[in-house]
Specification:
TIM Barrel, eight-stranded parallel barrel
Length: 314
Protein backbone atom coordinates (compact mmCIF):
# COMPACT_ATOMS: atom_id res chain seq x y z
CA UNK A 1 0.00 0.00 0.00
CA UNK A 2 1.48 3.39 -0.91
CA UNK A 3 2.29 5.70 1.95
CA UNK A 4 2.69 9.44 1.34
CA UNK A 5 3.73 10.46 4.84
CA UNK A 6 1.78 10.63 8.07
CA UNK A 7 -0.46 7.88 9.39
CA UNK A 8 -1.93 5.48 6.89
CA UNK A 9 -4.83 7.30 5.32
CA UNK A 10 -6.85 4.30 4.24
CA UNK A 11 -6.92 0.58 4.76
CA UNK A 12 -4.81 -1.21 7.34
CA UNK A 13 -1.16 -0.49 8.23
CA UNK A 14 1.28 -3.33 7.46
CA UNK A 15 1.48 -5.95 10.22
CA UNK A 16 -1.40 -4.30 12.07
CA UNK A 17 -3.49 -6.61 14.22
CA UNK A 18 -7.27 -6.49 13.99
CA UNK A 19 -9.15 -4.72 16.80
CA UNK A 20 -9.51 -6.88 19.93
CA UNK A 21 -13.27 -6.90 19.47
CA UNK A 22 -15.63 -5.73 16.71
CA UNK A 23 -16.36 -2.00 16.80
CA UNK A 24 -19.07 -2.00 14.16
CA UNK A 25 -21.63 -1.50 16.94
CA UNK A 26 -20.28 2.04 17.32
CA UNK A 27 -19.90 2.77 13.64
CA UNK A 28 -23.31 1.65 12.49
CA UNK A 29 -25.15 4.36 14.44
CA UNK A 30 -23.03 7.30 13.33
CA UNK A 31 -21.85 8.79 10.06
CA UNK A 32 -18.15 8.86 9.17
CA UNK A 33 -16.72 12.31 8.49
CA UNK A 34 -13.22 12.67 7.06
CA UNK A 35 -10.57 15.24 7.90
CA UNK A 36 -10.95 16.95 4.54
CA UNK A 37 -14.65 17.52 5.11
CA UNK A 38 -13.94 19.15 8.48
CA UNK A 39 -10.74 21.09 7.77
CA UNK A 40 -10.57 21.21 3.95
CA UNK A 41 -7.27 19.34 4.12
CA UNK A 42 -6.24 15.83 5.11
CA UNK A 43 -3.32 17.19 7.17
CA UNK A 44 -4.74 20.01 9.30
CA UNK A 45 -2.82 22.57 11.33
CA UNK A 46 -4.84 23.63 14.37
CA UNK A 47 -3.60 26.80 16.06
CA UNK A 48 -4.46 27.35 19.71
CA UNK A 49 -5.72 30.57 21.30
CA UNK A 50 -4.63 30.62 24.95
CA UNK A 51 -7.20 32.76 26.73
CA UNK A 52 -6.08 35.23 29.36
CA UNK A 53 -7.30 34.34 32.89
CA UNK A 54 -11.09 34.05 33.03
CA UNK A 55 -13.55 35.01 35.79
CA UNK A 56 -13.05 33.06 39.07
CA UNK A 57 -9.53 31.92 38.07
CA UNK A 58 -6.63 32.79 40.39
CA UNK A 59 -5.19 35.42 38.04
CA UNK A 60 -8.43 36.90 36.71
CA UNK A 61 -7.71 40.53 35.84
CA UNK A 62 -11.27 41.81 36.06
CA UNK A 63 -11.77 42.72 32.39
CA UNK A 64 -13.50 40.34 29.99
CA UNK A 65 -12.93 42.91 27.24
CA UNK A 66 -9.17 42.41 27.62
CA UNK A 67 -9.66 38.66 27.25
CA UNK A 68 -11.79 39.12 24.13
CA UNK A 69 -9.42 41.64 22.54
CA UNK A 70 -6.42 39.34 22.99
CA UNK A 71 -8.36 36.32 21.70
CA UNK A 72 -9.54 38.19 18.61
CA UNK A 73 -5.99 39.37 17.92
CA UNK A 74 -4.60 35.84 18.18
CA UNK A 75 -7.38 34.25 16.11
CA UNK A 76 -6.79 36.81 13.37
CA UNK A 77 -3.04 36.13 13.44
CA UNK A 78 -3.63 32.38 13.17
CA UNK A 79 -6.12 32.70 10.33
CA UNK A 80 -3.98 35.14 8.34
CA UNK A 81 -0.98 32.85 8.81
CA UNK A 82 -2.79 29.97 7.14
CA UNK A 83 -3.86 27.51 9.83
CA UNK A 84 -6.73 25.15 9.05
CA UNK A 85 -8.54 25.35 12.39
CA UNK A 86 -8.49 27.15 15.73
CA UNK A 87 -8.79 25.73 19.23
CA UNK A 88 -9.75 27.94 22.17
CA UNK A 89 -8.65 26.95 25.66
CA UNK A 90 -8.51 28.49 29.13
CA UNK A 91 -4.75 27.96 29.35
CA UNK A 92 -3.99 30.80 31.75
CA UNK A 93 -6.60 29.70 34.30
CA UNK A 94 -3.95 27.62 36.11
CA UNK A 95 -4.06 26.27 38.74
CA UNK A 96 -6.89 24.34 37.13
CA UNK A 97 -9.88 22.63 38.65
CA UNK A 98 -9.77 18.88 38.22
CA UNK A 99 -13.03 18.45 36.38
CA UNK A 100 -16.01 20.81 36.30
CA UNK A 101 -15.19 24.51 35.97
CA UNK A 102 -17.19 27.41 37.37
CA UNK A 103 -20.23 28.49 35.29
CA UNK A 104 -18.56 31.89 34.83
CA UNK A 105 -15.76 30.18 32.89
CA UNK A 106 -18.28 28.45 30.63
CA UNK A 107 -20.12 31.72 30.03
CA UNK A 108 -16.93 33.65 29.29
CA UNK A 109 -15.60 31.01 26.91
CA UNK A 110 -18.91 30.91 25.06
CA UNK A 111 -18.76 34.66 24.49
CA UNK A 112 -15.13 34.53 23.34
CA UNK A 113 -15.71 31.65 20.94
CA UNK A 114 -18.65 33.45 19.37
CA UNK A 115 -16.53 36.55 18.87
CA UNK A 116 -13.83 34.48 17.19
CA UNK A 117 -16.39 32.81 14.94
CA UNK A 118 -17.53 36.25 13.83
CA UNK A 119 -13.96 37.04 12.74
CA UNK A 120 -12.82 33.86 11.00
CA UNK A 121 -14.42 31.19 8.85
CA UNK A 122 -12.20 28.36 10.09
CA UNK A 123 -13.44 25.37 12.11
CA UNK A 124 -13.26 26.18 15.82
CA UNK A 125 -12.72 23.79 18.72
CA UNK A 126 -12.78 24.09 22.50
CA UNK A 127 -10.68 22.69 25.34
CA UNK A 128 -11.86 23.38 28.90
CA UNK A 129 -8.92 22.64 31.18
CA UNK A 130 -8.13 20.59 33.00
CA UNK A 131 -10.65 18.00 31.96
CA UNK A 132 -14.17 19.42 31.67
CA UNK A 133 -15.31 17.67 28.53
CA UNK A 134 -18.99 18.19 29.28
CA UNK A 135 -18.61 21.98 29.49
CA UNK A 136 -16.59 21.96 26.27
CA UNK A 137 -19.31 19.90 24.60
CA UNK A 138 -22.03 22.23 25.90
CA UNK A 139 -20.25 25.31 24.57
CA UNK A 140 -19.55 23.65 21.23
CA UNK A 141 -23.15 22.54 20.90
CA UNK A 142 -24.52 26.02 21.61
CA UNK A 143 -22.17 27.95 19.30
CA UNK A 144 -21.95 25.17 16.68
CA UNK A 145 -18.23 24.66 17.09
CA UNK A 146 -16.88 21.63 15.28
CA UNK A 147 -14.68 19.80 17.79
CA UNK A 148 -13.41 19.64 21.36
CA UNK A 149 -10.24 18.39 23.01
CA UNK A 150 -10.41 16.16 26.08
CA UNK A 151 -7.23 15.56 28.09
CA UNK A 152 -8.34 12.36 29.84
CA UNK A 153 -11.14 10.51 28.07
CA UNK A 154 -10.35 7.02 29.39
CA UNK A 155 -8.21 5.61 32.18
CA UNK A 156 -6.84 7.30 35.30
CA UNK A 157 -4.00 9.83 35.32
CA UNK A 158 -2.05 11.27 38.25
CA UNK A 159 -1.76 15.02 37.68
CA UNK A 160 -0.95 18.20 39.58
CA UNK A 161 -4.73 18.47 40.11
CA UNK A 162 -4.85 15.02 41.69
CA UNK A 163 -6.22 11.84 40.16
CA UNK A 164 -8.29 12.47 37.03
CA UNK A 165 -10.57 9.70 35.79
CA UNK A 166 -11.78 9.52 32.23
CA UNK A 167 -15.53 9.91 31.84
CA UNK A 168 -16.10 8.81 28.27
CA UNK A 169 -19.37 7.16 29.26
CA UNK A 170 -20.82 10.48 30.43
CA UNK A 171 -19.41 12.61 27.62
CA UNK A 172 -20.57 10.36 24.79
CA UNK A 173 -24.06 10.08 26.26
CA UNK A 174 -24.15 13.85 26.76
CA UNK A 175 -23.19 14.44 23.13
CA UNK A 176 -25.97 12.14 22.01
CA UNK A 177 -28.45 13.83 24.36
CA UNK A 178 -27.55 17.24 22.92
CA UNK A 179 -27.79 15.94 19.37
CA UNK A 180 -24.41 17.56 18.72
CA UNK A 181 -22.24 16.77 15.71
CA UNK A 182 -19.07 17.67 17.62
CA UNK A 183 -15.90 15.63 17.16
CA UNK A 184 -13.89 14.51 20.18
CA UNK A 185 -10.10 14.79 19.90
CA UNK A 186 -8.74 12.91 22.89
CA UNK A 187 -5.26 12.92 24.39
CA UNK A 188 -3.55 9.60 24.99
CA UNK A 189 -1.30 9.54 28.08
CA UNK A 190 -1.67 13.30 28.27
CA UNK A 191 1.20 15.68 29.12
CA UNK A 192 1.76 16.90 32.70
CA UNK A 193 0.43 13.56 33.94
CA UNK A 194 1.36 9.95 34.63
CA UNK A 195 -0.81 6.84 34.36
CA UNK A 196 -1.34 4.87 37.55
CA UNK A 197 -0.34 1.62 35.89
CA UNK A 198 2.64 0.92 33.66
CA UNK A 199 2.09 2.94 30.48
CA UNK A 200 1.44 0.97 27.31
CA UNK A 201 0.93 3.37 24.44
CA UNK A 202 -0.53 0.85 22.03
CA UNK A 203 -3.14 -0.31 24.53
CA UNK A 204 -3.95 3.27 25.55
CA UNK A 205 -4.52 4.34 21.93
CA UNK A 206 -6.74 1.35 21.24
CA UNK A 207 -8.75 1.87 24.42
CA UNK A 208 -9.25 5.57 23.67
CA UNK A 209 -10.58 4.79 20.20
CA UNK A 210 -12.40 1.50 20.64
CA UNK A 211 -13.72 1.86 24.19
CA UNK A 212 -13.75 5.66 24.60
CA UNK A 213 -15.01 6.18 21.01
CA UNK A 214 -12.70 9.14 20.37
CA UNK A 215 -12.93 10.55 16.86
CA UNK A 216 -9.19 11.29 16.81
CA UNK A 217 -6.29 10.88 19.22
CA UNK A 218 -3.60 13.34 20.30
CA UNK A 219 -0.05 12.46 21.25
CA UNK A 220 2.09 14.94 23.19
CA UNK A 221 5.45 15.07 24.90
CA UNK A 222 5.87 15.16 28.67
CA UNK A 223 4.94 18.86 28.98
CA UNK A 224 3.75 21.93 27.08
CA UNK A 225 6.32 22.70 24.38
CA UNK A 226 7.77 19.17 24.45
CA UNK A 227 7.22 17.07 21.29
CA UNK A 228 6.33 13.38 21.24
CA UNK A 229 9.03 11.02 20.06
CA UNK A 230 8.98 9.72 16.51
CA UNK A 231 8.84 6.18 17.88
CA UNK A 232 5.74 6.95 19.94
CA UNK A 233 4.03 8.61 16.98
CA UNK A 234 4.69 5.56 14.84
CA UNK A 235 3.34 3.26 17.55
CA UNK A 236 0.24 5.42 17.91
CA UNK A 237 -0.29 5.43 14.16
CA UNK A 238 -0.16 1.67 13.98
CA UNK A 239 -2.52 1.26 16.94
CA UNK A 240 -4.97 3.90 15.70
CA UNK A 241 -6.06 1.61 12.87
CA UNK A 242 -6.98 4.49 10.51
CA UNK A 243 -8.21 6.96 13.13
CA UNK A 244 -6.45 10.36 12.85
CA UNK A 245 -3.41 10.97 15.05
CA UNK A 246 -2.53 14.58 15.97
CA UNK A 247 0.72 15.94 17.35
CA UNK A 248 -0.36 17.72 20.53
CA UNK A 249 2.70 19.64 21.69
CA UNK A 250 6.25 20.69 20.89
CA UNK A 251 5.92 21.21 17.13
CA UNK A 252 7.93 24.01 15.53
CA UNK A 253 9.05 24.88 12.02
CA UNK A 254 12.33 23.00 12.55
CA UNK A 255 10.86 19.63 13.57
CA UNK A 256 7.43 19.62 11.93
CA UNK A 257 8.62 17.91 8.74
CA UNK A 258 9.95 14.98 10.76
CA UNK A 259 6.97 14.77 13.11
CA UNK A 260 4.44 14.75 10.27
CA UNK A 261 6.00 11.60 8.84
CA UNK A 262 3.96 9.73 11.45
CA UNK A 263 0.91 11.91 12.07
CA UNK A 264 -2.16 13.24 10.29
CA UNK A 265 -2.16 16.74 11.76
CA UNK A 266 -0.82 19.03 14.44
CA UNK A 267 -2.09 21.21 17.29
CA UNK A 268 0.33 24.07 17.90
CA UNK A 269 0.68 27.22 19.98
CA UNK A 270 3.90 27.65 22.00
CA UNK A 271 6.25 27.95 19.03
CA UNK A 272 3.93 30.50 17.40
CA UNK A 273 4.24 32.99 20.27
CA UNK A 274 6.49 36.04 20.10
CA UNK A 275 10.05 34.97 20.92
CA UNK A 276 8.63 31.50 21.56
CA UNK A 277 7.54 32.56 25.05
CA UNK A 278 4.28 31.05 26.25
CA UNK A 279 2.99 34.22 27.92
CA UNK A 280 3.37 36.28 24.74
CA UNK A 281 0.65 36.66 22.07
CA UNK A 282 0.65 34.80 18.76
CA UNK A 283 3.14 36.19 16.23
CA UNK A 284 1.67 36.14 12.68
CA UNK A 285 5.15 35.88 11.17
CA UNK A 286 5.88 32.76 13.20
CA UNK A 287 2.52 31.32 12.14
CA UNK A 288 3.38 31.81 8.47
CA UNK A 289 6.83 30.25 8.94
CA UNK A 290 5.33 27.21 10.63
CA UNK A 291 2.59 26.73 8.03
CA UNK A 292 5.08 27.08 5.17
CA UNK A 293 7.40 24.50 6.76
CA UNK A 294 4.55 22.05 7.24
CA UNK A 295 3.27 22.46 3.71
CA UNK A 296 6.74 22.05 2.23
CA UNK A 297 6.87 18.76 4.07
CA UNK A 298 3.52 17.66 2.65
CA UNK A 299 4.40 18.78 -0.87
CA UNK A 300 7.58 16.74 -0.76
CA UNK A 301 5.46 13.65 -0.11
CA UNK A 302 2.62 14.44 -2.51
CA UNK A 303 -0.53 16.52 -2.53
CA UNK A 304 -1.59 17.35 1.04
CA UNK A 305 -5.18 17.21 -0.12
CA UNK A 306 -4.85 13.66 -1.27
CA UNK A 307 -8.03 11.79 -2.04
CA UNK A 308 -6.98 9.21 0.52
CA UNK A 309 -9.07 9.84 3.59
CA UNK A 310 -8.78 9.22 7.30
CA UNK A 311 -12.16 8.86 8.92
CA UNK A 312 -13.32 10.48 12.12
CA UNK A 313 -15.57 7.90 13.72
CA UNK A 314 -18.58 10.07 14.48
Amino acid sequence: MPHDGGCYKSGTPPNALPPPFPITHALTIVKDVDLYQLFKTQTPIIGVVHLLPLPTSARWGGSLKAVIDRAEQEATALASGGVDGIMVENFFDAPFTKNQVDPAVVSAMTVVVQRIQNLVTLPVGINVLRNDGKSAMAIASCVRAQFIRVNVLTGVMATDQGLIEGEAHQLLRYRRELGADVKILADVLVKHARPLSSPNLTVAVKDTIERGLADAVILSGWATGSPPTQEDLELACGAAYGTPVFIGSGANWENIATLLQAANGVIVSSSLKRQGRIEQPIDPIRVSQFVEAARRSWNSKGDSKSTKQVKLHS
